[in-house]
Amino acid sequence: MSTPADSTATRLRVEGLRVRRGERTVLEDLTFRVGPAEVFGLLGPNGAGKTTAFQVLTGLLAPDSGQVFLDGAEIRPGDREFRARVGVVFQAPALDPRLTSRENLTLAARLYAVPPRTARTRVGTLLERAGLADRADEPTARLSGGMRRRIELARALVHEPSLLILDEPTAGLDEGAYRATWEHLLELRRERGLTLLLTTHRPEEAERCDRLAILDGGRIVACDTPDGLRARVGGDVLVLESNEPAEVVAVVRERFGLEARVLDGKVVLERPRGHELLPRIVESLPEGMLRSASLHKPGLGEAFLELTGHWLSERDEPIGARP
């Protein structure tokens, strides 16, 4: 993974954002910095505050307190100047399906007051880079999900912003479209020095970021590189499935002096040299107590678990193991 062009500079600085809805605090003291040409992610499950953060940073929601700085100058996300310098890609499709790709991009150029002659050249270039010049005059309703996502990205770049903010950029895409979308994003970063700020709940997507802020319950609980976050998990991750998880925890404690946790109905513990420990645990348990046992290296899912005490995903299975 490449690194930002200048990690000492700051493209976006967010200080102390706070949002309340009634008696509930949705965001509390959201503070982070993003450097030029950096890929920065807000990683968290549904309900962590990612969408609210996205809404504040794109000017859709006013915070109760806090400040946002772009290239060192304080700015309100809803201001025209901010919108002129930032591109936004929403999670939900925002293209007009009745218009062609070219028409969608041309309309966006008009909204950003791009001069017509410049807009024609720029739209053609964006369609070429998206690999869709030969489909430019078809209604976007006829395009695949991955193709439409590339047009969404092109539309967000039509005014040549320095910062691109994306909400769950690959939600709903198949594996091929997911990979193509990320290849395109990283190419834009390399070619233009574009800064990317994204929200995601996918560990595999978070792996593509230079740095991550772990967001849980409206607060940032850690901010580091993916490697740095994974390093917070000690050793290997052992996962034991049983109809009697409390009994498994008791056996592990009594026979090995180790503390395990029951999470999503599974017994989980982290230990160095787990490949040596796992068969010993399996042999120590009564026959039929275990349904399955597995071992893997810690991933961002486990890092999230270590930092928050619960899984990143609501699925009843360990996630985030690094391949």
3D structure, described in words:
This protein has eleven helices and 14 strands. The protein is elongated, with a radius of gyration of 23 Å. The longest helix is centred in the middle third of the chain and has 18 residues, at about 175-190. The chain folds into two domains: about 10-225, P-loop containing nucleotide triphosphate hydrolases (Rossmann fold, 3-Layer(aba) Sandwich); about 230-310, Alpha-Beta Plaits. Helices cover about 35% and strands about 25% of the residues. It has helices at about 50-55, 80-85, 100-110, 115-130, 145-155, 175-190, 205, 225-230, 245-255, 275-285, 300-310; strands at about 10-20, 25-35, 40-45, 65-70, 75, 85-90, 165, 195-200, 210-215, 220-225, 235-240, 260-265, 265-270, 290-295. It has a six-stranded mixed β-sheet, sandwiched between helices. A hairpin with a 2-residue loop joins strand 1 and strand 2. It is an alpha/beta fold and about 325 residues long. The relative contact order is 0.14.
